[in-house]
Structure formats: C-alpha cells, structure tokens
Amino acid sequence: MATTLFLLRHAAHGELHRLCGRLPGIALGEAGLAQAGRLGARLRREALEALYSSPLQRCRQTAAAIGDRLALTPEIEPDATEIDVGAWSGQRFDALAGEPGWEAWNAERDRARPPGGESMAEVTARIIGLIERLRQRHPDGRIALVSHADVIKAAVCALLGLGIAAHARFEVAPASLTACALWPGGGKLLRLNETGEDA
C-alpha cells in the first residue's frame, strides 16, 4: 500500500517586491485565481479523496478553487504554513539586499536563520511530521496538500535524502504540482514542479 501525495504550491499573488512570510491579507490576484482554477481542472483526473491546506489566505483561496472543481472541502493544516521569516516579514527585497543576515540566509540556508524566525531544519521537521500523519490517515489514498515553495522544497529534499542546501537546485513555481508516493519508512518522487504548460 502507498499514499499518493500531491504537493501544490499556492497560485500567484501580486506581492512580488516584498517578503510576505506569514503576513495576513496576502490574497491571490486575478491571474492567481485563474491559475488555481486550472490546477483544479488538472486534478480532476487524479481521483483525490482529501484536500488539505496551509492556513494562509493565498493557500486557502487556491485550495477553495481546487475543492470547487473536485467537490472536496479543504481541511486546514497549520504545519503546512509558510516559513516564519521573523523580522523580515513584509520587508522589501531591495531593502534586504546587502544585509549580512539576508545574504547568509540565501547562501547557507542549511545553517542560517531569519531574525526571530524559523530555521529550515525546523520547517523540514514540521512538514515531514505532517506528511507522515497524512500518510497514516490515508495509507492507500490519493490526497493533495496546498502549501508554500520553501515548505515543499524542504519536503522534497527530505524525501530524496538531500541536504536542505539542495533547495536552490530546483524550482517550485506558483500553482505547480509535485507528487510523491509514500509508504511506511520510505517514499519516492513521482513528479516535480509541473505547471499547466506541462500537462
């Protein structure tokens, strides 16, 4: 028996010039809502039995659009939430550029930590813990989880036995689909960063 888990990044929002983190009120734009609808249409062929989401608005909106297409009600999972970037939340990227802590975060993600925020090791621990709970809940099911780029990257790195420094070697685009098969004590990657253009 194996669980098939679809890790879905939320669709696009309009806050491209600042680090949103867990800020409230970051909603999908018109393009993002269209992306979410297309993602839901693609998932109709996957026969999902359950749909889970990060509690942040952009994920809940993405999950709602998918759920509407699949007649599923999304369930909120707090451990799927965005990385806590602490004091950097809401700051513009151009203001962060050149800050030593920011430079270290982007160069040594496996060792650095946002001021007052989470390390990637902590993100990995919580998302892997959640994935294992979902696997136990759906031991032979097909399920989806709407989350965030760095959280999905942490899960993929852990699944493949890679250090978190490998996160920069692959992309997780808005409204993308990454799939894995999971069984007790193991799993494998089935698909990575598929967007609508991949279908």
TrEMBL record:
GO terms for cellular component: cytoplasm. CDD domains: HP_PGM_like. This is Histidine phosphatase family protein. SMART domains: PGAM (SM00855). It comes from the Bacteria. It comes from Teichococcus deserti. Transmembrane segments: none annotated. GO terms for molecular function: phosphatase activity. Pfam families: His_Phos_1. InterPro entries: His_Pase_superF_clade-1, His_PPase_superfam, PGM_Phosphatase. Gene3D superfamilies: Phosphoglycerate mutase-like.
